[in-house]
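Internal tracking record. Fields below are filled automatically when a chain is submitted to the structure queue. Please do not edit lines marked as system-generated. If the sequence contains nonstandard residues, flag them in the REMARKS field before resubmitting.
Queue: standard
Priority: normal
Entity type: single polypeptide chain
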Amino acid sequence: MSIALKTPEEIQEMRTACRLAAEVLDYITPFVQPGISTAEIDRLCNDYMAKVQHTTSATLNYAPPGYAPYPASICTSINHQICHGIPNSKPLKKGDILNIDVTIVTPQGFYGDTSRMFILDDASILAKRLCKVTYECMWLGIAAVRPGAHLGDIGHIIQRHAESNGFSVVREFCGHGIGRRFHEDPQVLHYGQRGSGSELRPGMIFTIEPMINAGKAAISELPDGWTVVTKDRSLSAQWEHTMLVTEDGVEVLSLSASCPPPPKLIGDPLASATNAAIAALPPAPLS
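SYSTEM-GENERATED OUTPUT FOLLOWS
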């Protein structure tokens, strides 16, 4: 495994790329209501990237070995869909939970990656609790990031929190390094043992994006070749941020004006620093 440490110039480019990815989610948030289709959400996001930001989608026509090209500009995963859901014309309905995953590419060739959960009207208590715990899992993983820590520390705290709440962690998909390429080393597992894996060093940039299931961890892939679902049809949730390992801790790069604040359980000083960073950002884009 070869983990690239980013230069100061690359770090600044990644700040811009990740902020732009988050701003796509800010822009689309008011539109995510019962009755809209994920295909329309995809169209709106693509138009915003192309016409307002002058960025491009990293997912559109993305085709790793063994896969057909992905046909959309964002991923939209609903209810029991874990990840890589393909937008379609079916309207969202009350009670749905939806993950929107955005990865943009700047004109300078840097990738920004982030995702959020959206809870539509009248969602069940279980759905709301799953989204909440998954958000806490992501932030607990972020709070474990600092120089000298290990990748296993991130996975350990995520797994412990998810399982202590009666949920399970998807094993087949993980966070990843990112920069001038969509996916770089290291792989960031969302389960594992404390003290295992590579040591974290200043200049590393990677995502933490736990996929947490309300039922068992087993997965299935739909015939479209992309959409991954829970095998037992239980609900699934995912949140994602991209972060930088700094000299004394962590900087979350994919913050924006409409990002929800960190949960109280992660405590200071990370929560205070992150909330201050969110407050200092420009207003969210208008719909």
